[in-house]
Structure formats: C-alpha cells, structure tokens
Design a protein that fits this description.
Pfam families: YjbQ
Family: Belongs to the UPF0047 family.
Helix content: 10-25%
InterPro entries: UPF0047_YjbQ-like, YjbQ-like_sf
Number of strands: 9
Shape: elongated
Oligomer: single chain
Number of helices: 2
Order of helices and strands: EEEEHEEHEEE
Strand content: 35-45%
Distance between the termini: 9 Å
Protein name: UPF0047 protein YjbQ
C-alpha cells in the first residue's frame, strides 16, 4: 500500500460481522461497549468508516453524546411522546424484521437484537485482519 504525504494509507479493506445484542426492555440503552467488544478487528484500522445497521424494524440505533446521564431519560421521554405505548394504532400486523451507539428498544419484552457492523478503511499495518468468523477482502486503490 502506498502512503500519502500526510501519512494516511491509500487503499482499503472491508470487514463485516453480524452481532447479536443481549435482550433489553423498552427504553434507551447504551450498547457501545457491547458492540466494540464484538469487533476487536476495529483496532486494526487507522482510519475509515464504521457503518452499524440494525436488522429489525421495531428497534433503532441512535448516536448521541454520553456525558450527561439525563440524555437517556430525555430521549426516552420524547420517544414516548411521539409514539406512546398502548395507543389505538391502525396498523397492528407485523411481518418479518428485515431491516457512544444506543439501542432504542421500542418493545416492552424484546429478545436479543442482531446488528451488522461493516468497516471500510485503511489498515494500520497494511495487512488483512485475521479472524476465523469474519471474512474480509482487501483491495488497493
């Protein structure tokens, strides 16, 4: 891999992993540490983009500051104002789910949630990360 005058590697590597989050009750839950624990390969990148997608339509992910402990309460309060539990919503049928990191759990009694983490970036040492559970392809630009 070549280096630019600023020391950033030119070329890229891809990595993807499906992660199963532990079940949570309805609310806003900080899951940053849980996600990072499941993708130790992230440390092998010097720069890049981490895309995190949830594979469910009855939960969502949000990015927000994590200093003030009231952030979680404020987010939950506003979500409950926008979409309160127990309202007579017209839609009641659900199909299969097809679709700091916070898990916004919208169900009272949810099961484990699955997310996919995809990394595209430059590796620190120019090599492909090795992980038996994580396929990766490396390409040069």
């Amino acid at each position: 891999m070549a280096s630019s005058s600023r020391g950033i590697q030119i070329g890229s590597a891809w990595f993807q992993r499906k992660i199963k989050l532990r079940p949570q009750h309805r609310g806003i839950h900080l899951v940053t540490d849980e996600v990072l624990k499941e993708i130790p390969e992230l440390r092998q990148f010097s720069v890049g983009l981490l895309h995190v997608q949830i594979l469910h339509t009855s939960a969502s992910l949000a990015l927000n500051e994590n200093w003030d402990p009231y952030v979680r309460d404020d987010m939950e309060m506003m979500l409950n104002k926008i979409v309160p539990e127990g309202m007579p919503y017209r839609h009641s049928c659900e199909g299969p789910d097809d679709m700091g990191i916070w898990l916004c759990e919208h169900r009272n009694d949810a099961g484990p949630r699955k997310i996919v983490a995809t990394i595209n970036g430059c590796l620190r040492d120019g090599r492909t990360p090795v992980s038996p559970m994580s396929p990766m392809a490396s390409t040069s630009s």
